[in-house]
From TrEMBL:
Residues 506-549 form the PI-PLC Y-box domain. Residues 442-485 are annotated as: Disordered. The keyword Hydrolase applies. It catalyses: a 1,2-diacyl-sn-glycero-3-phospho-(1D-myo-inositol-4,5-bisphosphate) + H2O = 1D-myo-inositol 1,4,5-trisphosphate + a 1,2-diacyl-sn-glycerol + H(+). The keyword Lipid metabolism applies. Its cofactor is Ca(2+). This is Phosphoinositide phospholipase C. One of its GO terms (molecular function) is calcium ion binding. It comes from Himantopus himantopus (Black-winged stilt).
Amino acid sequence: LTEDEDVQRMLRGSPLWKIKSRGKPRERLFRLQEDGATVCFEGGFRRARSHQSFSVMHIEGVREGHQSEGLRKYGAAFPERHCFTLVFKGKRKNLDLAARGEEDARHWVQGLAKLMGRLQAMSQPEKLDQYPLPELWGLGDSWIHGVLQRADRNKDNKMSFREVKSMLRMINIDMDDVYAYKLFKECDHSGNERLEGRELEEFCRRLLRRPELEELFGRYSGEDRVLSAEELRDFLRDQGEDASLRQARAVIRAYELNEKAKQQDLMMLDGFMMYLLSAAGDILNQEHTKVHQDMSQPLCHYFISSSHNTYLTRNQIGGTSSTEAYVRALMAGCRCVELDCWEGSDGEPVVYHGHTLTSKILFRDVIESIRDYAFKQSPYPVILSLENHCGLEQQATMARHMKAILGDMLLTQPLEGQDPHNLPSPEQLKWKVLVKGKKLPEPWHEPQGVTSLPDPEEEEEEEEEEEEEEKFQERSSRQVRGSPRGMVLEDHGVLAKDASQVAPELSAVVVYCQAVPFPGLAHALRHPRPCEMSSFSERKARKLIKEAG
């Protein structure tokens, strides 16, 4: 790939604007390193220049144009064709960038896509052979210097805890801060809140140790700490595999890292760990990573991967609401997302956690994000679970937005030829978005008519909010008593007077997922209605089970 025009441009480097929610956009020089897997750029650190980096291995996707919430909000000054977003795996925030010209942006978008594709196609041993950074199996100390060089922001050859956390992100380790700091302190023998040399090496080795795998390896390898092909075959058979000596030798050839050991059909601890931590050694049958079940059963025959308070990126008392939360949920395979809809200004409904300090996002923006990402990971239907607190006018606006933005993706009529008393299957509903919400009684003939309906989710929400508020008040009452923040739970947002009524326009888009109050187990069993759905908290579920005996 070094001869590729896009990659060559990346190796030469390009000035790119970093666009953030806070502060002005800043131009930094981004350059792909010679390893073809690391991108470095200058950054500000304590008023001094420092070099930061990220690995191409940690990029989940690249979006062109204003396709992130950050660029839509803060990138208007930059032409859309100059902009792109790097979406990282795990909890790392998106990186929104703008090039000086369209050509530069295109080189980076295309170049990153090629590098990501190449890395995904490589086996783990090939990655270790090509890239020194992930070589974290105790095969020599050269990897420490590579990591240190990238993570040591102020270039003093010592690692503060902040720099250690940066290093952990570089090698894709998502670790609890409390545990990481405990390990940091245990390795800081000098007591100066810095790791250097052997302290850093000890930290990394302790971080990556797998005592249970070492014990397992020792049990089969004996005193010489080397697995023969016969011993590996015995291990595989003990795991329930019908393994032959030939298959054991094939595993050694594929995963052993030491060439001398490989030539003698022997496996060292590093190769054994490499095999067990690979897809081939996974307890999960790899065939089950793809759709392998019968998808022609009625929708209610399946567990559905669902998300609660999908819009939140942090806690549900004062966290940030973001359309990016919907993107991440959908890209993780979620098929049912929640939208808490409230009256917004200028006639535009908003989504946020009512009665709290969580930030608000436009309903329209959420629907646009769902349109763009609903079916990138799966073709099976997506359910929009609406918790509606809007009045009739903004309910109608919600319906208009869903129809206009989702178009043919939105299911607005029962499937032709489908028995109305039975739910269609996921196979029949491929590429469709379903709305879960309250529905007007059928038939109704007055186009302007409205009906007040009980809220089937009100009890669940009230129970959950009571539990959250109790916890929140218990934690904060001593600190905020008498302060303005002590009144946060009294800020109920804007709840329309006619929120208990249902607008015909919104009712019309509810087809197979009608929200109703739960009538009780006995009634539900006697009168099954597959198209009706009820929500209740775990506390209520336990109570119903107990009452039913």
